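Supplementary Note 2. Why include the ligand at all?

Several targets in our set were suspected to adopt different conformations when bound, so apo predictions alone were not considered sufficient. For every target with a known small-molecule partner we therefore ran a joint prediction. The input for zinc ion is given below.
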Amino acid sequence: MEVEILEEKEKKIKFLLKDVKPQFANALRRTMIGKVPTMAVKEVDFINNTSGLFDEIIAHRIGMIPWEFPEEEYKLPENCECGSKEGCPNCRVEMVLKKEGEAYVKAKHIKPTDKKVKPVNPDILIITLLEDQELELEAKAVLGTGKKHAKFQAAAASYKYYPEIKVNGKKVENSEEAAKVATGKVKNADGSVEADEEIVYSLENTIDIKEGDEIEYLEHKDKFLFEVETVSGLEPKKIVKKAVDIIVEEFEELENSL
Ligand SMILES: [Zn+2]
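The joint prediction is reproduced in token form.
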């Protein structure tokens, strides 16, 4: 197995995964979406709410806020030594929110006891308070996974087969470049025209194609173009690494149980 990173940004990573079966690529994708733990608020206790919104709506909004957190310091409640019934500092973060009078109440106004826990976007609006209104609550955040609830989803992840381009029957060395040039005039194996902008990657140098060249578009079934965008407090690269760890752990568990 080989990995080549094509593009890395704060929220997004694109990489090539080579010499693997489609089943593995799919397992990796599913693990990134559904099994990498992230942090979200699970419980909200309202002390005072004289705002225009019901408790349930405010609790739901707070629940959807993604949090940055020190990954090594927290455990999934089900894996914590405390048994997770009441929770403990290893599997739970307490938070408070208190605001009164005219104000936009935002994610940054929620104060976690652990200073390393921060909202990914501090300006997410929770509610607008009017002059005589007040909101006071306590919340508990825990780790969870996307397969349990969408609010814990770590990333949006997808992949496609790596494209290979042939011009007049000859394989083009860098097919991604060719894909770029050939956009809109690439023929699929079945003769249909491929105009998918997404196979086009931002490369400067392109191959030379003349009018009337016969261009073929093929896909590698053992080479995958991955695109992973974080929707949580985890960096995209960390999500990929964590997903690989989880897959390895699952196989170890299987091996041990055999
Ligand atoms: Zn615990």
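The domain at 39-151 is CATH 2.170.120.12 (RNA Polymerase Alpha Subunit; Chain A, domain 2). Residues 182-186, 195-205 have pLDDT under 50 and may be disordered. Comparable summaries for the other entries are listed in the accompanying table.
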